[in-house]
C-alpha cells in the first residue's frame, strides 16, 4: 500500500482542532491541489472562499446548527458551485450563454466540479497531518451564508471544509459492503441479494455502536437513514437554487 | 512536497491506454478508496458500476460521442447518484422518506457524495501509476446508458471514469489563477479586479495553445467557454432527472 492510498483509507472526520491557524503556504497548497482536479470541459465552475475572521466563523457555526468546529479550526473553506464568471464571459463575448447556465445539466457540472476540487483539497490537507470535516450544515441557511460571504448570482455555497490540527481523533465507521456499492456490468438485479447486503450491513453497524457505547446504542443503518430521511429538512433548496438562476431548465 | 500532493498536482487526463486490464486487486483498491470518502450524514448516496464487457464498452463509447478511450482502457467505472437503496429502506422501515428523496437538497447530496468518492478513486488509481479520464459524455444519452447498466429509479449515472495504463501522456493545462478561484473572507466584490484576472488568464491560455500548435491555435479561455456555453447541450437533463424521481421538489 502506498502513502497516497494509506492517506485516503485513513480518513475520518475530525471535529476537535487545536487553536492553531494554517499557514499561508498550507492554504495555498490545499487550494492548488483543489485546482488540479479534473473539470468538465475545462469549465472550472466553482470557487472557494476561505474564512479566517473569528466573528464570521462564529456566525457560520451558528447557522450550521451550532457546530463549534466550524468556529474553532485552523482554517475554514467554503466550496461553492460557481457559474457567475461564465455569466460575465457571456456578456463580454456577446454570446447567448444564459439558457445553458440555467440548465440542470450545468448545475450538476458545477456541483461535481466543486466536489472533485474539494476532495483533492481534503486529501492534500490530510497528507500534511491535518484533519478535516465537511460541513453540509451550511445548507441549513444558505440565504444567510450567501449574505455573509457576499456571493453573487449563480454562486451557491455547497459545503464547508473545516481544516486544522486534530486534537481528538475519531473512529472510522464501517462503510456499506463493497459489493453493495460496486456492481459489475450492470446494477444488481436481484432484489433479494440487494436487501440481504443491507441487512448484513445493518448488523455490522448495530454491533459497531453496541461495542462503542457499552450496549447503550445499537441502531441499524437502515433505521438511522429512515429517521434522517423522514425529517423533511432543507426543503427550501429547490426554490433557493432557482432564485439564484440555476437548475431552472 | 509529499507523495500525496505530488500525485494530486501531477494529474492530467489520459486518453490513450495500453490494452491491459486492471487486476481484481486494483479494482478493489480503487473502490475501497472511493468508499473511504466523507459522505453527507453517513447517507452513502452513490453506486459504482464497473464495465469490462467489450461490447458494452463500445456501446457506451458511441453514446459518449465516440470517445474511443471509453472502449479502450484498463477498466471503466460509472459513478452514479443513488437514492434507490434509501427508497427501499423507507418501505422496509415503514417511514415516509419520499418527499426528502425527491428534494433538490438530496439530489445535491447524492451528486456531491458520488463526486467525492470518484475523486478518491481517481487519486488512488493515479498513485498506482495508472491514468484516468472522467467521461461526462455519458450524460449525452442517459436514457440509453441507464438501459445498458440497468439502473433502477432514483439512480442517475453521472460520469464515467476510464482507468488504465497510460500509453500517451498529455500535458497539464494551466488553471484559473489561484486568486480568482480562491477568495478570502468574502467573494471578490471588485468587478474590475475580477475581470482583470480573467483577462490575464485568457492571455496565459492563448499563449499556451500558440506555443503548442506553432501558432495555429490561440483561443482565449473566455472564447472557448462562450462557444461551449452558447451550444445548448443536454437540455433534456431536468426532465430526465425528474422522470427518475429526483430534484422534483
From TrEMBL, chains A, B:
This is Nitroreductase A. The keyword Cell division does not apply. The keyword Oxidoreductase applies. It comes from Neobacillus mesonae. Belongs to the flavin oxidoreductase frp family. Keywords: Flavoprotein, FMN, NADP, Oxidoreductase. GO terms for molecular function: oxidoreductase activity. Residues 8-165 form the Nitroreductase domain. The lineage of its organism: Bacteria, Bacillati, Bacillota, Bacilli, Bacillales. It comes from the Bacteria. InterPro entries: Flavin_OxRdtase_Frp (IPR016446), Nitroreductase (IPR029479), Nitroreductase-like (IPR000415).
Amino acid at each position: 500500500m502506498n502513502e497516497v492510498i494509506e492517506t485516503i483509507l485513513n480518513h475520518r472526520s475530525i471535529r476537535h482542532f487545536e487553536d492553531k491557524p494554517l499557514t499561508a503556504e498550507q492554504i495555498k497548497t490545499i487550494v492548488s491541489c483543489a485546482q488540479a482536479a479534473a473539470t468538465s470541459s475545462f469549465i472550472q465552475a466553482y470557487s472557494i472562499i476561505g474564512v479566517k475572521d473569528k466573528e464570521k466563523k462564529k456566525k457560520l457555526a451558528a447557522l450550521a446548527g451550532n457546530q463549534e468546529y466550524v468556529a474553532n479550526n485552523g482554517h475554514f473553506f467554503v466550496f461553492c458551485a460557481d457559474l457567475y464568471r461564465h455569466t460575465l464571459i457571456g456578456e463580454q463575448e456577446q454570446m447567448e450563454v444564459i439558457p445553458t447556465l440555467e440548465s440542470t445539466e450545468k448545475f450538476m457540472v458545477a456541483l461535481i466540479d466543486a466536489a472533485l476540487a474539494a476532495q483533492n483539497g481534503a486529501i492534500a490537507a490530510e497528507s500534511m497531518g491535518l484533519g478535516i470535516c465537511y460541513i453540509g450544515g451550511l445548507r441549513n441557511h444558505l440565504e444567510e451564508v450567501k449574505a455573509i460571504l457576499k456571493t453573487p448570482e449563480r454562486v451557491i455555497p455547497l459545503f464547508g471544509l473545516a481544516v486544522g490540527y486534530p486534537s481528538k481523533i475519531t473512529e472510522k465507521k464501517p462503510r456499506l459492503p463493497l459489493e453493495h456499492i460496486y456492481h459489475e456490468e450492470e446494477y444488481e438485479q436481484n432484489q433479494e441479494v440487494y436487501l440481504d447486503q443491507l441487512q448484513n450491513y445493518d448488523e455490522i453497524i448495530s454491533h459497531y455502536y453496541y461495542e462503542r457505547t457499552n450496549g447503550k446504542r445499537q441502531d441499524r443503518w437502515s433505521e438511522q437513514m429512515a429517521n434522517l430521511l423522514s425529517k423533511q429538512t432543507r426543503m427550501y433548496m429547490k426554490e433557493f437554487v432557482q432564485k439564484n438562476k440555476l437548475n431552472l431548465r
